[in-house]
Structures are given as structure tokens and as C-alpha cells.
Amino acid sequence: MKYSDIQEEEVKNRISQDFFSKFDCTKILGKIDFAVKIKRPANTIDFPDEYLLWAEAKKDSENIISMLAQLVITIGKARTFNEILPPAFLGCFDSEKIAFIPYSEIQDIFYQNDFNWNVAPSNTKTKEFQLVYNQIDRVINNDIPFNTYIFYFEKDEKDLRQFIKENFVIGKSDATKIKIDKNNFLTIYNKWYDAVKPTIGVNWDAAKKIDIIDADFYLADLLSFNNETIREKLFVLLKSNLYKYNKQTDDLGEIFREAYFTDNQKAYNHFWAKYERPPLEEYWDYIINRRDLLVPQDIRERKGSFFTPRIWVELSQKYLADVFGENWQEEYYVWDCCAGTGNLLVGLTNKYNIWASTLDEADVDVMRDRIENGANLLDSHVFQFDFLNDDFSKLPQGLQDIINDEKRRKKLIIYINPPYAEATTARTTSGTGENKAKVATKHKTKDNYKHLIGAATNEISAHFMARIYNEISQCKLALFSKFKFVCTQNFIKFRHFFKADFEKGFAIHANTFDNVTGNFPIGFTIWDLAGKKFPEFIEVDVPEENIKKKFYDGFKQSINQWIKLFDDKRRHNLAIGYMDNLAPDFQRLHAPYIETNIGKRHANHFAFTAKNIVEGCVYFAVRLCTKPTWLNDRDQFYFPNKKWEKDTEFQNDCLAYTLFHSQNRISAKHGVNHWIPFMEKEVNAKDKFESHFMVSFISGKIIQNGYSDLFEQEEAKFCLKREFSPEATAVFDAGRELWKYYHKQKNINVNASLYDIKEYFKGRNEKGSVNQKSADKEFNRLNEDLNFAMKNLAQKIEPKIYEYEFLMN
After folding, report:
1. In a 3-state reduction of DSSP, which class is residue 550?
2. Measured between alpha carbons, how far is residue 333 from residues 367, 417, 469 in Å?
3. How many CB atoms lie within 10 A of CB 189?
4. Engineering a disulfide at 276: which of 86, 177, 385, 595 sits with its beta carbon 3.0 to 4.6 angstroms away?
5. What long-range pairs does 422-427 form, CB within 8 A, spacing at least 24?
């Protein structure tokens, strides 16, 4: 082999020198092993880097498809193509061979909405790796004559050099503008945003109010030739040296607003000199239909510009057929009242029974344009309509006739993926964010339904559901949405109002939707609005996990109502710490937590005393033992049954878990530390501890000192000798070793809590936060031992959380 017996880095260096010396191979792109780009002359330094090859490198002989699959997952995981223009080729090489595959042949892999990119590229056992492997295998062996792109360094050296000479052409690339396609139009938009947008004379806040955004100006530029937009059905049109937008029609004809460049179009000309416009016509529809990728987050949430992935559209239509029968499209009418560009309706066959409305006139134009190109919709059934504000008298007469006829109305399916915006978030309620302006106040539906659905009006999807339920009564509703309306406390009043029968549904990971961030489920649920009562729970399929999942309606009291039964605010003089009890769901990842002094946040502050420490620790452990996942994100913690009261092992496990958890932030810096679970001799303390409260509580023997009066007569009976499970004992043992190691150090606080000990070793960063790791290797080892023991204890506690109905299966 040409490059045998040398390390991987040396293989890369030698191949760079031997075959790509005319190019720049020095750039490191994240975790991509090898990248080849054109060397730019000094006078073109502001041009984007133009790459010719991204490659996977291995020292030893490897399977080509396996190497390419690893490269694809590396690129897809980092979304490298979102920031950098992709290369002409992807490739791979080892010590004996090199292979090339055109990027365009496999770029569709990166746009699979139902793909989990969070796997390790090197793990060949995952289903994701196998999917990529199989797709590349099909391309190589079926779709193109790939054998011409594999070269062995020794026997094919001449052919390899000829291939590079013909395909990695420097002069041509320098003279040719960069082509725009469906893969890079978003990357180029990000560059346009910085270079051209600031020079357009538009009041962007005012434009946003009429639903014009910067991306509309970008599309006008992109789909133009000789500075004239060639696609008329856009929000904004480029006309030589100005833009026209907000088209209005009156008796005198069409009237536009105009926007001029503030720099005589210099930045515009300089920017677009690098790119070839327009893109190939085959990309136009895709780019226009994916305008949602360019919409700012706040507008996407308000208007619902979230592209429903094809796989979930198809599955939802299968569920509709399961519920309404094989001939449902002949027997039922369908109205998508927030249709966007009609993505959700693709696949439906009976255009005479389909209606599509949307907020934006430009989206109506896109749908009509699609009709001209074969979309299965009727032009007369596609219309502009603001569902949250317009009167139904504006609807086409045919749709009005259906709505006004009780018998036909029962055969109407409202089939939607409404906006997900909400006025408040976890950051709002925790005091670190602000309410989103006008989400709950700008629509007529807020005034019409606030008294009926209460706090649910904070979320736009609830506005849609309320109007549909109330004004299109007894119809059918099939929608994509969060599960908040099913199970959260803010929707209790909504559920009393929304008396519907659940038919069928499924739950999917939110991140399978483009530009939806967050680790939560999105549901597709089908409802009969002629129901009697909202169900106590719904059970849906989870196709990604091949399981079923129940979502409960909050009919039970919450765990916060339970813990308040044990909180005696009159006895604050006996408190040894306080716990913030925020909303009882998994979205509060950093709650609850325990501090020495009462907090100032708007929340219930539970005061720990000897009388209620067990209940407080049960609450704390229950909230934190179960690992948050995308699927349990909306689950609520409930008022438990009474079985936990007799399970002393469970109670003591929770006590141990609370004592050693990182969100127990008791600190000797802020007051007396009553939470040390050891005697001085156990940890070789350098001096006597100020308080022995916790040891007294655990051992059942009150140790007399200055704080023994915390055990008043009523509290003393709760001071019992406690037996701990092997898992809890392992936690105490690991914690004890940490305390011992701390007391070997200099300049310590003898009364330090575990929180103080970790701060001592880890230190704080410039922002004041405790660092993740310490420079002290022995501390890190001991801390890892404690974390391991805590993980095992949490796994022991978790089944009891469901058995005692703090969480519902």
C-alpha cells in the first residue's frame, strides 16, 4: 500500500502534498477530517470559501460505504452546510485508496425530517448509521457509475490525477459565479442578511405588521434576472433599483409601496456579483415553499410557519382513514384553515371536497401557482382568510353552506397544523423572561373566548380550537399541536369548555419539524366535537419508539397542592432551609432546589423542619429522579396515593437523594448549615461542627448543642433511627469520602455543605457560575463516584414514583 505504516495525520498530509498541492487543504471544518478548497487571490478575499471536497480519513483499509456514512453523519450532525457552501464532492480515503461521490447525489439525506442526527458518527451499530449506509449503497451501486470514482493510489495514480485535473478546476471556479440551489439558499440568505439588508430603506417593524419580512426581499433578489424579479407571485418584487411590496388593488389598478437602497445599490451589486441568479427553475417551487426556513422565530410561532414533515403528513392521513373509513375522502369535507402553502393537503385526492385558507395572500398565490403545476386543489376552494379575526360571512359560499347545515357540518373535518406561539414561557414564569407581545391580545378570539378558556388564550392554537369547537359545532377536528391542552394546569378551564371525544392519535418528537427547537412531543390527535366530556386521559401511539403513551388531563390535584399540606409557615423559626416549588412538570429542569434562606421568586417556598423533612425530601427526590425526555416533557406531577406513607425505605431513599443532590444549595456562607449528615470523626473534621441537626434526625438521638432546640417537643417525635437501603448507603459512603478529602485541604470552612465543597474544588467562572470540572483529579474521581451512586439510587426510587402515582403511566 502506498501510505502504509504511517499515522492518520501523516496520511492526510501526504495525500494533500501528492495530489492537492494546488489547493488549500489547511482549513479545519469542525470534525470533518479533510477539506480541499480553492486558493483565492488576495483581491477576492471577501468571496465565500469555495470547497471542492470534504472527506473522511482513515489510517487502515476501510469499507468505502462505511467511511462515507460516517462522514455524512458528521456533516449532518453539525449542519456544516448551513454555514458553509457545500463542496462539489464528498469523499473518503485510507492508506490504499480514495473515493469521490458528487455531493448533489446524496444531499437529500440531510433533509430527512424524521432522522435523528444526535448519534455518534463512529457508532456503526445504530439504526441511523445503517439507514445512511444503505442509502449511500443504493446510490453507489444502482444510481450512478460509481466505479469510475474509486482510485487506488498505486495502480490508479495516473487516472486519479486526471480526475482531479478535470473536476477540481481552479480557473473555471474563480471565473464562475456560485450556483444557488435548494441546499445552499439558506446559507446564502444568512450572508445576504448581513450584507444587503442593512442597505434597504425599510422600516422593518412597520413591515412586519403587514407580514412583510426581510426574507421576502431576499427572495425578490434571488428569483431575479438583470435586477428584475421574474416570479410575480411574491410578497416583494425587485424592479431595477427599487423594491415594490404590499400590493393593493383599487379602481385605478395596482398600487405598491416602494423601498429604495440607501447606498445606491452598492452592497447589493457587490454581494450578488458572487452568485448566479436565478437558480435553476427546478428549485424555484422548493425555495418558495420553504420560505418558512427564512421566517424569524417570533413570526413563525405566531403564523405557524412550521413545515409539516412529509412522513407525518402521510401518517396523519392514514390515521384519518383508520377513524373515518377507507372512503373518508368521498364521504367527508376537509378544511385546512391555516394552510400556509398547502403542504398538509398533499396526498389528498378529492379536490372537490377540500378547502384551504391562509392568512397571507402570497401563500394563496403560491397554492394557486401549484394548482397550475398539477396540485390537486380547486382554485375556487383556495382563499385568504384570517381565522382568528374574520367573520365567517367572508368564506366561500360553498363552505358556508356546509358549516350552516348541521348534517353536512358533522361531515366536515378541520385538518390543521396551527401556530404554536404562546405568550408565556418557562423563562417568563421563572422571572428571567418577558411575555411575548400581542400573542394573546391581538386577535378577536381573545375577547370572545377568554372568559370560557381562561389562561389557555396565552397560546394561539387554543384560539383556533375554541373557535372551531364553538362556531363549527359537532364537526371533526384533526390537528397537530403540543399536548399542553390535554394535560397542563393552564388548560383546566379549557378542558371544561372543550367537550370532545378523542378518536385516535400519535406523538412525535418536535425536532423532526424543521426549525422547531425544544425537546418535547408534538401530537396529531383526532376529535369528535359532538362529545359529552373531555376524557380523563388519551392514549396515543409513539411511532418513533413503537410504544403507546398516555397523557392525563390534570383531573388529579398536583404535587404542589400535596406538599403545601406539610408546610407550616408559622414555624419559620425552626426552619433549616427552604425549597422553591415551581410548576409541577418536567420543563422546570432546575427546580426544585433548596437554599439556606427563603427565596424571592414568585413561587411557594417550602420551609424544612424536623416535622416535615421527610415529606420535603420525598417531593424533592420525586421531582428530580426521573430523567426528562422529549416524551415526558408535558407530564405533570400529581397528588400521590397513600401507599408511600408506609414505605419507610422509599422515604429514607428520598432523604439520602436530597442530602447529596447538586440542587441542594445549602451553604454555610449564608447561614448555619444544618444539613451535614456525618459526625466529625467520620470525616476527620478539623474542628467541631456548628450543628448536628441532620445526624440527630438520622440517628434518632438528639445531640445537644446550640441548635438542639430545633427539635421542639412536637418535632422530637420525628427524630427516629433510620435504616438505609444498600443503594442509599452507597451514596452516604461516596459522600463521606468527599467530605474526608475536603477536610484534608487548607483554608476550608469546617461547616461546609456539599455545595460549598464542590465550589471549593471547582471554582467559579467569569459569569459567577460554578465550573463543570475541577483541576483536582482526585476530587473529580470522588465526585464521579458520588454521581454514579446517585444515579443508581435514582433508578431504585423511580418505579415507586409511578407506583405511588406521583407520575402516571
Report:
1. strand
2. 19, 17, 17
3. 20
4. 177
5. 422/301, 422/458, 422/459, 422/460, 423/458, 423/459, 424/458, 426/587, 426/588
